[in-house]
Amino acid sequence: MTTATVPDHRGRYGVFGGKYVPETIMFALEELETAFDEAIQDKEFNELFQKELAIYSGRPTPLTKADRLSESNGGASIYLKREDLNHTGAHKINNAIGQALLAVRMGKKKIIAETGAGQHGVAAATVAAKYGLSCKVYMGKEDIRRQALNVFRMKLLGAEVIEVTSGSQTLKDATNEAIREWVAAVEDTFYLIGSAVGPYPYPKMVKQFQQVIGHETESQFNEIHKGKLPDAVVACVGGGSNAIGMFAPFIEKDVPLYGIEAAGMGVETAQHAATLSKGSNGVIHGSLTKLLQTSEGQITEPYSISAGLDYPGIGPEHAYLHETKRVTYEAVTDQEALQALKLLCENEGILCALESAHAVAYSLKLAKKMQKDQHIVVCLSGRGDKDVHTLMEFEEGGK
Amino acid sequence: MNKRWEVFQQSSDYRFTPYIMAGDPCEEATIELSLALEKCGAHALELGVPYSDPLADGPVIQRAGMRGLAQNMNLEKTVNLVSKLRERGLKIPVIIFTYYNLLLQLGENRFLKLAESSGVDGVLVPDLPYEESGYLQEMCKEHNLALISLVSPTTREEKLERLSREAEGFLYCISSLGVTGIRSEFRAGLDDFLKAAKRNSRVPVLVGFGLSTREQILQFDGSSDGFIVGSAIVKKIEELESDLLTNREEAIKTFKSYIESLLPVYSR
């Protein structure tokens, strides 16, 4: 199979990955790599992480069969991995707990984070409160507008939310500012990256802390279906943390995997965030990956109705899985995601995040092509409370 | 090593290396600002390439990048601009300051050939640390270009030794953590870091990041062989933007007086 040898000792997934950062923070990455490698070999650290996931975050999250949705769709049955039922409402908390425990183990007192939809910002602010760390969250002005509820939550949790007004005022620019802050404060500050992006070892670390999603799914599905594996696994990808966590245990197994990007207004327009479908190789935020850019290498502004998918790059392992064709990456439009979100609400009583709605939308298409006795698992990466404002605006706009 | 580097390296002056952004506020202004800097005593010139996501830069240089982008300046045009600077008589070494993604998209080989033939002397890529720069380092040597190494107060001792030994052109010592921009004070122990860098270096050791006054510059004379000023000069260019576009002769005069007020008397 494809992944046994990645990442290599230089943090490469094929040609992707690496550490493209200013010299000033190289020592911090080396320090982090050593601390992370030691921590994951340490039984006590792993037990503590698992314990926190269970008694604080509420894991394991259920695997819910979406009976009515599957029936109305008329194809394979659809299961939902309920990351929306985590404490703080999304998968982001898994990684935030893992990295915060590592920060504490390294003796760091301050964390900084970037956020798009606000779920990672809320998760970072939450763990900072829990473990007694100070927390600054960088967030684009446009995302602050779109995600007012999460901004309020972060502030309630004691975090400082720093408005970023450069560029498109979204996740890309928030990440730039967080890295700039990190370069300045690198000696005593832990940068808690929220997705499977960034310089090595971040992509590996985020996968490590998110793979609990896939492992739980595998054993829950196995229990229901007596040793079988799912016939397809679907997850949305922006940076790709829920997807890489969901895919982790299945990559070496014979299970079709689907990563769903945001096609926004359509991949044929300029208004999308479909990095793998339309991007090219380049360097963004510390790693070589696929990204949306001009022919001269200027990074272009992505677009999606979903703030969490509105990112011009993608985790380097996804770029590798795309290139090796191990994972099929498809793009779903705003409209398709919105329709799927409504269907899920009306049929299952679950309001999912707009990000997750992209995965649900694709699973509906996929299920129609499959047999009734086949099974798809979709990662429902988060809940949709944060998106109510966007949904209301959309409804009022009569679209 | 080419003649321009020889002159730079053999100089006994406290070397002045200014940074300006290509295309800020327009190409002709960049040419005239470069020539003015040489006249004021610059020993080398760093020419920045506008980039949408300059991670190592603070707001002053970010804004300059936006102005350069508005002029459609890019890496290829910046290299071509060096040709024009040579035609207009610029003699000091020119270092292209570019982010790695711009190099990748133009193509490393294409860039190196073009740079060599245009009279470029060095390349500085702030987001390409030593660990990732092996290929470019080798290729730069083949094309007679110096890949400028950056070291910071956080660079590990053995790495600092290796980078100092292998440095080409000059060794760029970052005075303080953080992005480019004006600083009111510098960290303790900076002299020791600069001296450690000088111990093993075959090339001049220059200090940069944050320097904006003559007093700050003089502070490092003795522990370094020269200094780099970026944001303070770029900020002056920003102030003069309108005149540089419409009343250039006058703006260049003002710019020269500013540079003279900045430099230690012996560096002019």
Structural overview:
The complex is a heterodimer of chains A (399) and B (268). Helices cover 44% and strands 18% of the residues of chain A. Chain A has 16 helices and 14 strands. Chain A has helices spanning 26-41, 43-57, 67-73, 92-105, 119-131, 141-146, 148-156, 171-185, 202-210, 212-224, 241-247, 275-278, 316-323, 334-348, 354-368, 388-396, and strands at 12-13, 16-17, 63-65, 77-82, 110-115, 134-140, 160-164, 189-191, 232-236, 257-264, 280-284, 287-291, 327-333, 375-380. In chain A, the strands form four sheets. Chain A has a six-stranded mixed sheet with strand order 3-4-14-9-10-13, sandwiched between helices. A four-stranded parallel sheet of chain A has the order 7-6-5-8, sandwiched between helices. In chain A, strands 1-2 form a two-stranded antiparallel sheet. In chain A, helix 3 packs across helix 14 and helix 4 packs across helix 9 (202-210). The radius of gyration of chain A is 19 Å and the shape is globular. The mean pLDDT of chain A is 95. Chain B has helices at residues 3-10, 27-39, 59-70, 75-87, 100-106, 108-118, 134-142, 157-166, 190-200, 214-219, 231-239, 241-246, 248-262; strands at 15-21, 45-48, 94-97, 122-124, 146-147, 149-151, 171-174, 205-208, 226-229. In chain B, strands 5-4-3-2-1-9-8-7-6 form a nine-stranded parallel sheet. The radius of gyration of chain B is 17 Å and the shape is globular. The two termini of chain B are 25 Å apart. Chain A binds chain B through residues 10, 18-28, 30, 166-167, 172, 176, 179-180, 183-187, 281-286, 293, 295-300, and chain B through 51-53, 55-56, 58, 62, 69, 74-76, 99-106, 126-132, 150-152, 154-156, 174, 177-179. Chain A: Keywords: Amino-acid biosynthesis, Aromatic amino acid biosynthesis, Lyase, Pyridoxal phosphate, Tryptophan biosynthesis. Chain A: GO terms for molecular function: tryptophan synthase activity. Chain A: It catalyses: (1S,2R)-1-C-(indol-3-yl)glycerol 3-phosphate + L-serine = D-glyceraldehyde 3-phosphate + L-tryptophan + H2O. Chain A: Its EC number is 4.2.1.20.
